[in-house]
Design a protein that fits this description.
Elements lengths: L1 H22 L14 H9 L22 H7 L2 H5 L7 H23 L4 H70 L11
Helix pairs in contact: 5-6
């Protein structure tokens, strides 16, 4: 029996020695690597300041000059490119832009005759673009104002609700106090209820 316990002890001692030998081996990496300097961390995060920014690799690992037009188009989600007219303010601004471009281009084409067709087309496209963009921004501005107004109205409604809730709680507290006073006044334990004559 003594031999069995001695064997277990020697086995544990040998295991502990082998574990400590493995920890100091150069092949194993330390748990935490030594940190870089602050400049090295900044260069790793933001790139070398001497390189031009547009020459840094982009998200797909290519430099800006290596990206083709088709790759740029592929980055646009197909859902948003096919349904851009469903976004807020887009429908109205596009319709007004089409109308204004058609009107101005038509008037320029009629008044200028055949020699100014290209000029009329250019005017129509320009008026369409300017009108559509202008009305779209105006509509977005109005929507932002409307959302701010709605936010203020919701806040005012919440304040009004809180005020009514406080008033109701005060009324309940006042009614409870009056009921307690009335109960105390009518109580048989109240000495002021007894008359001595």
């Amino acid at each position: 029996m003594a031999d069995d316990t001695r064997d277990i002890r020697t086995f544990k001692a040998e295991k502990n020695m082998s574990d400590t030998a493995d920890d100091t081996s150069p092949a194993q990496k330390p748990k935490y690597e030594r940190s870089q300097s602050q400049v090295g961390k900044l260069w790793e995060a933001f790139g070398n300041p001497e390189e031009q920014v547009n020459m840094l690799p982009n998200a797909i690992g290519k430099k800006a000059n290596d990206v083709s037009m088709m790759e740029a188009v592929k980055t646009l989600p197909m859902h948003t490119t096919t349904t851009f007219y469903k976004t807020g303010c887009a429908r109205d601004s596009l319709l007004y832009g089409i109308g204004a471009g058609f009107g101005i281009g038509g008037v320029r084409g009629i008044l200028g005759g055949m020699r100014s067709i290209w000029s009329a087309c250019n005017w129509a496209v320009g008026v369409f673009a300017v009108t559509s963009l202008g009305l779209h921004e105006f509509c977005r501005h109005r929507r932002r104002q409307e959302l701010d107004g709605m936010k203020q109205a919701v806040e005012m409604m919440a304040q009004l609700k809180m005020k009514k809730q406080r008033e109701k709680e005060e009324q309940v507290a006042e009614a409870a106090r009056l009921a307690e006073e009335e109960k105390k006044r009518k109580s048989w334990t109240n000495p002021s209820n007894y008359k001595f004559w």
